Amino acid sequence: MATGEDTTRSCTCRDAEAAANDAIRRFVHGRVMWTPEALTELDRLRRAWREATNRDMTTAS
Length: 61
Hints:
About 75% of the residues lie in helices and about 0% in strands. It is mainly α. It has one domain. The chain starts with 7 loop residues before the first helix and ends with a helix.
């Protein structure tokens, strides 16, 4: 790049965010009943997505 910035870490964070988002989408697709176990898993997936999003924001700062 002309500015000499290392974008590898930023791309990795965005990839992790996209992967976490895809995992949530796959998990909820077509689901009509939410058991306590399913809600726990959804919470875990959302936490992973938030962590990936926060890593991207921190890296951008």
